[in-house]
Structures are given as structure tokens and as C-alpha cells.
Amino acid sequence: MNTICIMCPMGCPLTVEKSDGKIVVTGNTCKRGEKYGADEFEHPRRAITTLVKMNGGGVASVKTSDAVPKERIFDVVNFIGKLVADDGVVIGDVIAENVLGLGVNVIVTGRK
Fold first, then answer.
1. Contact 75, 98 (CB under 8 A)
2. Model-wide pTM > 0.70
């Protein structure tokens, strides 16, 4: 598998293969790239950022507190899409905890 590391601005081109039961990452210039490549190969995860409607109109921007398994992204987005934030929310407020049992929270990052 070929991918680009996103752990820093260098964007190292990675090659990730499984050899003799071990994951081998090449092309990285640091340990973070090696970990990213192995994680991406075994079980890719993504953070989610989106918008949530607010009671009185407007929207709050939100993000997940951690990355979720790639195969659950649409489940989490659908869950978040049903949320309505209180008008009094501020940046840093948690508006949903342990989403779908994945151990991630939905956190307010801004409002309009």
C-alpha cells in the first residue's frame, strides 16, 4: 500500500507492506510516520468535523474528540446530524459523549 503521511508538514510518501506477519513501513523520516503507516494499514481512523444546528438558529462547528474507525464514519456523521446544540454552548463544550460506544465525544469548536 502507498500513502502519504499526514503527521507533519513533510508529507513523506510511505510504502506499507506485510512481510512474515510483520508490518514494514518505508519512506518515513521519523517514528511518527512509521506509526501512522502501520495504523493506516491495520485499521485506518479519521477525525470528524462538521456542523450542528442550534436551537435558536445558526450552527455550531463541532469535531470528534478522537479519530473513529474509518468504517464507522457515516454512522457517526448520521448521529451528529441529528444533534441540536443549545444556544448557550461555548467552544470546548461536549454536546455528546461516547458516541455510538466508540469512546469519542462531540466537542464544540465554534459557532455562527
1. no
2. yes
